[in-house]
Records
---
Amino acid sequence: MTDAQAAVAEAFQQEWGKVVATLIRMTGDWDLAEECTQDAFTTALTRWASDGVPDRPGAWLTTTARNRALDRLRRSKTEAAKLQEVAVLSVPEEPAPWGDSGVTDDRLRLMFTCCHPALTLEARVALTLRTLAGLTTAEIARAFLVPEATMAKRLTRAKHKIRDAGIPYRVPPAHLLPERTSGVLGVLYLLFNEGYSASAGEDLLRPDLSAEAIRLGRLLAQLMPDEPEAAGLLALMLLQNARSAARLDEAGDLVSLEDQERSRWDGARIAEGIRLLEAALRLQRAGPYQLQAAIAACHAEAASSIDTDWAQIVMLYGELRRILPSAVVELNRAVAVAMADGLEAGLALVDDLAASGQLTGYYLLPATRADLLRRMERNAEAAASYREALELAPTDPERRYLARRLAEVSS
Amino acid sequence: MRYMLLMCGNEEEDGPAAHAEDEEPCWMPWAREMQARGVLLVEGSQLQPTSTATTVRSSGSEVLVADGPFAETKEQILGYDVIECSDLDEAIYAASRHPVALNGGVVEVRPVLASV
């Protein structure tokens, strides 16, 4: 790779979302913004090779994309294009202030608009990856295992809805901000989990969605420094991602948290996650992501499963349940109770949950029950629960893990 | 932007509460709140129940007239409002404050095709 190519690749990582976001604000036209941004990067490849890399690549790309948009609007003779041209000429390249808090980065506007609740969840995720992260339609289609044409249609439909239904391009006003922020966080976490649960090695060209989610999470935390949940989410993703090398063995099989080789955890990521979490907690507005990050931090800081501060984890799950009541949280709390207060106590909670019927069909319910019974050496009952979980487990690595456990308790 | 709010609900259960002659209708506080926010109420009304609806199909030469709404559904259109406001967020707010929404009904928000 030449220096110019490397500089363009670097600028793509750093600047794509920013240039698109600025162009959308200036033109109000998502397709035009994307195409002109693409053109600006293509132009950069030849121009930077001949003229050298500009001092401020982002500004160079924005100006080039803006001029390209103006060219295209001038060549088009429609009334609408003329009006758009006037608008582009009158809009400054630097964004307008947002409330009293100074200048808003256009990427924050873009993030909130992509994650607007009037769009389907699939569309929110796809738009975020296309416009902010700069993934191509083909890459996004591959990531979600759908045909490219389907993904292209999804993106077009979402962009048309934004335009035709009048979804505003802005950071929401204060009364909408908490709800909409949690919507943005939800999209990023979904993206992260999508990458996390996809089995590795199956498709080498499949983009790394967890890495994209962390990149976007970093951006959001940087753009919303007063929102502790943004930092909390980033911390949570880093702490979970730090374990990824130890999650699978050589055969690609799942390794339980207890059996993971902790030396293979990424110490730098753990340190960064904990640092972010501590700074977020100092703002004293704990939320679900900070609590989940705190739980992940308890695991990350323990030398082994036995050394884990299970009592603290029980407390954190209790707090999480208070602000976000859910049966899945309750199931996790039951596991922590089993470790802190004894297997019997944990099993009783799991049985209560099973009796409530709230998690019917969720494979982790029988899998958790099986695991507690195995530890209590009630092998026959454990085997029955493992069999039940096997029927429900959604992916191959999960099924292989359960089958291995089933063999252990059956022998 | 101009939006039509279609008030949907079960006309048996979610119909407008009867009000005495000297009482104001339930949507009046909503109309006042919208006015105060700068949302323009272009027009709107409750509709007579679907038992009064007539469906018309036409091929040009033949007109087919039938009794009843265009689709028999569990929920019906109870009324409509056409509003003018800045964007979808404002229209969503207007919908969320409407008595039909507050009483368990659903409001469909549809942008009106702009006539440029």
---
Amino acid sequence: MKKIINNELIDLTTDEVTARQAEETQAVIDKQAEETAEANAITKKASAVAKLKALGLTDEEIGALKI
Amino acid sequence: MSYIGSTPANKLVTSSDMEDGIVTTAKIANDAATADKIANAVNSAITANTAKTGISSAQTSAITANTSKNTNATHSGEVTGSGALTIADNVVDEANLKVSNSAVNGYVLTARSGNNGQMTWEEAGGGDFVKLGSTTVSSAVASISFDGLFSSTYKKYQLIGNGLLQSANNSLCYLRVRQSNSDVTGSSYIYADTMNRFIHSGAAYQGVGGASSDNKIKLIDNQSSNNSFTTNFDIDIYDPQNSSRRKLILYRSASWYNHDGSTSNFYWKHHIGAATYRGNTTAFSGVTIYPSSGNFTSGSLSLYGLKL
């Protein structure tokens, strides 16, 4: 595993490789959490729009709310 | 001559025995008149070449007044004319210049009063916006850093990522600052981020996010590993050498993500955000860019300095 500093190709140290692998594992977890949060936000938005429509708001009125 | 009685004694002839003006030219042998026999004034005139003997008095006057030589033969070529001479247009090239050194491709001519010809070919000096370093990725690397390139010469720096591609599809791109020539990994990064996403199907999504205690700055999510969808960004770093306050980083990025490998089935993503490292006020020595997983496999990264 290598890195570039000021255009020079350098091997990662053993400690750097270990840290890198741990970060890669954590990144997968973080990414999954973000995607779940985003999906939840989209779901809640759709639910909110449906409830507003049930209250009698038109699509134009809902759009004016910029939600 | 016959004499009565004794022959008179010989007597030397003196100048008083001769009438003035009776020695003819024929009485003087050829090559016999030395310089000493010529008046000193004449000798001086000859030496100074002011006598102008052998020419007419009119010519002598003209030479003395230097008025007769106001026309020349008609010249052609790079210098033209018969009176006042003129350098023709479009003929003076580098070979005609008196310069203290030989020309070098890309150099500029600089005034140097102490040098031969008072001009010297030199590399152009730095401007207000100067490239300080660049890297083109030609093999897989886990990170790309610039370090030691910040200085008091520039107040703002711009890091430009162009055509970056990573090995892991759907990876993120992170940034860390460097202090004392090492990446800063403390959990004191703070950033605010707005993300705009447009899906090929027509759905748009805007998300506002950020973090206050992260150990890196998230520049981009959903990078693609498909060669048709590269990642590009500009990152502005303000006054990184300042050691009395936190330094601001602004970033703008654009990336594609094709989750199924199809070039017609993609997310188009744009991030804009601001960040800083709030853990201390130590000067930055550099920055590091890295993907959340895998490696960068191609593209380039350049660092510019900007005077304010």
---
Amino acid sequence: MLLTRKSEAKVQPVNPLARAVHSLASKTVDRRTFLKGTGLTAGAAAFASQLPLNVIGQAHAQSAKAGNTVVKRTVCTHCSVGCSIDAVVTDGVWVRQEPVFDSPINLGAHCAKGASVREHGMTEHSHRLKYPMKLVDGKYRRISWEQAITEIGDKLLQIRKDSGPDAVFWIGSSKHSNEQAQMFRKFVSMFGSNNTDHQARICHSTTVAGVANTWGYGAMTNSYNDLQNTKCMFFIGSNAAEAHPVSMLHALHAKETGAKMIVADPRFTRTAAKADQFLRFRSGTDVALLFGMLHIIFKNGWEDQKYINDRVYGMDKIKAEVMAKWTPDKVTEVTGVSEADLYAATETFAKNKPASIIWCMGQTQHSTGNAFVRASCILQLALGNIGVSGGGANIYRGHDNVQGATDVGPNPDSLPGYYGIAEGSWKHWCKVWGVDYEWMKGRFASKAMMEKPGMTVSRWIDGVLEKNELIDQDSNLRAVVYWGHAPNSQSRGLEMKQAMEKVDLMVVIDPYPTAAAAMPDRKDGVYLLPAATQFETSGTVTASNRSIQWREKVIEPLFESKPDHTIMYAFAKKLGFGAEFVKNIKLVKDKTGWDEPLVEDMTKEINNGNWTIGYTGSTPERLKAHMRNMAAFDPKTLRCTTSVIDKETGYDCNGDYFGLPWPCYGTAAIKHPGSPVLYRTDLKMMDGGGCFRANFGISRDGVSLLAEDGSHSKDSEITTGFPEFDHLLMKKLGWWAELTPEEQVAAEGKNWKTDLSGGIQRVCMVNHNTHFWGNAKARAVVWNFPDGVPQHREPLYSPRPDMVAKYPTHDDKKAFWRLPTLYKTVQQKALADKVHEKYPLILSSGRLVEFEGGGDETRSNPWLAELQQEAFVEINTKDAADRGIKYWDWVWLKSPTGAQIKVRALVTERVGAGTSWMPFHFAGWWQGKDLLDKYPEGAAPIVRGEAVNTATTYGYDSVTMMQETKTTLCNIERA
Amino acid sequence: MARMKFICDAERCIECNGCATACKQEHEVPWGVNRRRLVTVNDGLPGERSISVACMHCSDAPCMAVCPVDCFYKTDDGIVLHDKDLCIGCGYCFYACPFGAPQFPQAGAFGLRGKMDKCTYCAGGPEENHSVEEFRKYGRNRIAEGKLPACAEMCSTKALLAGDAAVITSIYKTRVTTRGKGDEIWGWAVAYGGSGKLAEQGGGKA
Amino acid sequence: MRTILVLAGLLAAACGEIPQDAPKPYAGKEDTKAYASDTFKGDKAKYEQTLAKRAEYQNEYVRTGDAKSK
């Protein structure tokens, strides 16, 4: 709520008291409204009953004395910070939630979403999907689970028979637990397809690819907590104050104790409001900005030359490029940032070490997002900030388990653990899953299809709509399953609606119907199945800092919902691979008599297979002990440094880092403590230390890729650079004899990733302090990306034809993730059509603190929905004045695609002139029309609005197919 | 004797609305009644600041002074509460309160407002502690359980502090001295025209 | 200090002002004390101590240990 001196006309209030309030605070402008008249009306619909005069809510049995009360410890399901919650349950009803002060991660803190999760457990006025539904003649009708599984299963089997297993697209979820995520990848594999994906695609896919290809893993290198140890935080394309609010506890604490804060963003965000320095720059010009900074660093000799010599390959090429190309004048021309501002920010960042860089969607969601993230990595490598506490490349992931789902879940180009989908990888996983490789191969259309990356969630619509001869698989997609994923967070809504109307079958499996239920104009062929939330089951979740937390089951699944893994098993049986699906997993009967795969067995399957990323040491026993003893872990280091014995199991937490942040190498027996800060050479491996990975060969063009002599993890027996370990290297070094006989059997012919005994890891790490993944240099230049040195390339829909001429986009690609993908054609056509003149405003989108993701879940929570009741677009004061638009007018936001959406205008200085911004969480309207009637009865979100992605355009990252949602074009006019 | 207060540290508040929904959740406050809400100045501009506002449990509460039916009382700890059974919904307390704390659930004919509702410092009201009646009318009674208000306990950045005034001012003081600044946001200089210190702090270049 | 306050109160009374600390009329139901129920069983000191201790959870400096003093 804002009280300013601006005099903008406000919406006329509807009642005398509100008018009185209004006159007291008459000059108010903000994106929230106080005692909003229209809000009262909308809210009345949320609660069917008329409230009596002297009460404030429904009656509840509140006395703790009545009935059986237990406390279950769980973790918020909304973002990747991982705030713990103690859920108080009386007689099976979730009656209260308490903050967990002991948690080293959030110390009891919550944002609006975490403070209101209890709503998920409320059955009165619930907007959840309560029972299976089928679209019949344009209306959703309730059906039984049996009917649903049978009909959907039959249809899927028919499609599989007629068109092959690749004709179905399985969209999995970053909100599944790790157990469910890995099972889902197994499920789709056994169905015979790689056509699966999840939210990571549209979130940090560019990060994972860019960062992993730089130094080894594509994950956050440090942690939210570690920000407390920094001297300077640089947020570029991250609005942590709204997207990761509790992370700001650590950031603001750091600021309080002397750290500097710099924010670079096209918008003056709430995060920017806390910054010491703010750089407003044009959306999509990150490479220019970052390399402009690097230019200043090299020019002044602020780089860490020793670090570069020891640990980085290719910095000389980067330097040459940066010095020649990114002089201050060029940077200003491209980004709009003045030389003075850039110099000031660079000096602060370079001179206050260790310094941390933080990024989020602002960097990733671009057609050259892979280049942006690598530029950020290169900046940190030049300054020697990687592998240092207080430094790092701190990547703030989105959904609660997007990290876990990326690690072990449904990726189209990899099996769990980033093993990939080559034959060796399939053999490894078949072994772990206890199935025969030949049988698995037989499930696929062919071996070639088995080893070809599938389509992405960002492009499944083209898998439906594109001409068959242009797609790189036999059949077009004929069915889509949205399993825990909203549709309105993906771009090109117009075409998405068409694709949803064209498929033979669409299935939505989710606690809420999602916008997918209401978007298409169809008569039939859609099923909605109620999944249980993560509060109604147990399992693990991986936070952005790679710590893994165990969630206890709070309540039994509500209504007729079922946990995702139970649903998966039911379908697996129907589709003919039930036994294989749960080969190593016990089944238990749930309260409804259904078979549920045992959660702990699924966790153990994760432990058994993911040697690459060290999910092997994080067993259920260790993780649960951590959750019971949270106070033992220090919030600055995440470490337990005294003997703390878990009362239930006798496990000693001493030495562990909280949540055993992966990699937690080896088996649980060797008690690796986890790795809170990656690539730290000043620590021993068994203290969480490491080095950069040798993943790209030993040398390139005659130059060594291995680390220089003397650069290695602490006390490593091998003090030079060295390649990754396999059984041959073990034998050569004479370390093979240190394996036990059982380990030798398992490790024969294998490497550190495929040795299922963990012996190679154990011997190298425990006996020799040596990293089995090799000891190499980070690559500032890569040769497997379209641009070896990150380049600035204008977005496909750019407002600057002059810049497009100088910095054009990539050439078109013929078969990229199975689909033709256009770059140059789109950019050139936009120029030819003078799109930048008709649609002169940059359109960007992002997050609000009150909502999450596609938004149907949070917009169904009255306590959150009340805070943001209408979709809006932020438009700069000048741009609004030019168009005769006043604060909170209805406007049409028009897209070059022909789409137009009707939203409120939030006139503000937050966005610069020429840029507009919308939150992407709204859905349930379609180009001016409220879709309430198209939702199943009683399951529409309380707040509905236009989805920004109805108006977004074509544009995809050149490595990962990430959507270019951070920068397209639009125009806005009064409605 | 303890005196219960709130302090909202504007240097830390990020307008996350955690306090607002914590209160909604804890007491199941209905739509349209906002016991606690965020107030932001300079939205979108350098110098943007937010604070969380609810009943401040004033030492000399104006609501109490003006109530025509004397439905307000103060507990031993200085928490200002009221009896809804007596309340006639006249709205005088609302006019008197500088913070807009009193909330009314209805907007009916003839100015019918319903019973006034406001922040109770999570201390319930004049019903038996932890009874069903207390929850229905006033919400949860955390104080009687030895807990502090949910809003402050759940604040995302620990901006909002609640507890005995001596204790929370000491916490706030730790921050101010560590920061080296911040106490100039409050106080005489700000209320009565300052030396321009406010203009110097924080914010960024646009 | 106390003498000054008392004097001020007297002076204010003399001018017809109501002193700030004077008890206000209350016509409603009597409320049970916060420390009256099961948790504290009437032990006011324990109640105040508990709340004072609990307030420290809002102070992360207790766990991070890096506060600075002027």
---
Amino acid sequence: MTRMVLSGNSAQAHAARLARVQVISAYPITPQTSIVEKIADLVATGQLKAEYVQVESEHSALQVVVSASGMGARTYTATSSHGLLLMHELVHWASGARDPIVMGVVNRAVGPPWNIGSDHTDTMSQRDTGWIQFYAESNQEVMDTVLQAFRLAEHPDVRLPVMVTEDAFYLSHTLEPVDVPDQEVVDKFLPPREPHAILVPGTAARLGSFTGPDRYVDFRFEVAKAMERVPATLRFVEEEYQKATGRHHGGPVPTYRVDDADAVLITMGTSTTTARTVVDEMRAAGKKVGLAKLRLFRPFPNEEIRALGATVDRLGVADRSYTFGPMGAAATEVSAALYPSSHRPAVTGFYAGIGGRDVTPHVVRRMYESLLSGAAPEVHWEDIEEEVSVDG
Amino acid sequence: MAKLTLPAQELMFSGHSACPGCGAALAMRLLLKGLGPRTVVSVPACCWTVIATPYPTTALGVAMMDNPIEATGASISGIRAALDAMGQKDVTVVGFAGDGGTADIGIQALSGMLERRTNAIYVMYDNEAYMNTGVQRSGETPLGAWTTTTPVEGHEHGKIEAKKDMMAIVLAHHPVYAATLNPSFPEDFERKVEKAKAMTGPRFFHIFAPCSTGWRFDAQKTIAVGRIATDTGVFPLYEVEEGRFHITRKTGTLKPVEEYLHAQGRFRHLTPANIAAVEAQVRASWERLLQYERESLIAPTPAEAPTKPPATRA
């Protein structure tokens, strides 16, 4: 193990190196750019022996890795924001073709107006494409989750692509000490991908094909069943990773001081770190608050959320995106997961950190106070201090 | 009549679901005869998505990957990269796309593939419209042709724009080899396939694919329509290697273009003045091609390029 000082983007690139990816393709976009630069550097210096296909668009980047993965290669790509949106057609394709691609996504706002700040709208808009989605809180978690993602994606029970996301700038461009596992340790945890069984040169076979209504649903059902197997497989993969490196990131929904809590806030990504300090501070002041992190968003961790909901009366969910549903994307899913439960806590959907607005301790404290007051609204925009009409 | 000297192997099988007289089916059959079994074909949404037959069957004796309509260029780059990474050096990688999937929506991915020197053959099989969706105009639909979106009714008289010159666009990328092929001339076709197969680097085929359904001719006339297309100069047969043009079929004098146009229902509405305009365009293109052939013998394009690009890169 080596301790390195890495940005989230460097952690992505080093994880791809350690995973011995065979084909990489990417197109530059702020704030993902330093991933493609770092990979170019790793390939040029021989630290990573991979085919690095430099393309003319994100759409082509994902097609390159879809086709390479379909031939049996281990593949990696990375993008952000508009790049991910341009990929959208291939995002669906990758899961339908059961290509175990790992993609780093730097969560960035979507224009207009142009904004490179952190925002989850880009990946939230891909939540129904059949990809597994992780939201990372630290650069260490980025590194570890990318390595776990390959093992999970290629597992015969799963065979689905995985996105490992990181908040723009808070992780992508912020340096943190990261424990980087040794190559031998990773090689043992993540052996080479098993040869692909479908497209073998010299044989008559077709990957993709077309079907009518008589068979199409069977393919969808297979994807659904694979998705259902993710939680159990992730548990196994995390245990294996812990054996290899000593680190465990707490499963799909790690919790913090939720026992006996009157109110629990659910966060995603970097706002979790801020919220953790606020929990400590408020606990010290005698306020019973707790925290849960949605590390895994797809498949949605229904069981963990129901277990959490059974122990608390007031839940807040902080969404870093706006998705035009009844609440934010995560808040809506949390509510839906809880609905069949006999004990249903009151749920408030908070919009916080949209477009890179800082989610400060002050903002987090306000969310907790609102929940504790017992009069929290159904949804609330934390970034907006007072209602301002666009008409002036 | 001389005996045809074509490879005996068949890698496209009966039971496919092409229309009777399909030029695109002939194009695939002849292509795979020349390329052999160690070929991987990437096919976007096009007639061939359907011709290859539904899951779990296939009409091809080779490995085939489907890809979205605009992404064939990228798909073959990915296939080649994977084969290189896995150490498989003896496989021919082919993108087999229609004219819409190449000249319209797929032109960006094609340009990218050529520019990054992907070691693969990109085929545009050209039936001159979106045939799989039911005959809508594409950038490759020729001047004057009827399609369902260039109707002949009211004040409309078919397509008012000329066909996009894909060979010129491709040649601007300096591929190692580019050629026009026509299933009506199978020996010329196979010679070009075998020549290209032996090369390394980006290669491009523009294959003429008459469509009896969309062009409105009797399904048994496909070969005749193809032959007259070349012999009128509408679809000249040539190849460009290292920048040198070589016309591979010259008959002395071109036949009147009217013979080609009158063979198909899609041109039925053209007036003598329209036909004269098409004739003038075809003649001018032919003269330009002759000129390219003469000039490129003296000064082939790549020799003038400031830096010669590498033959190939994944």
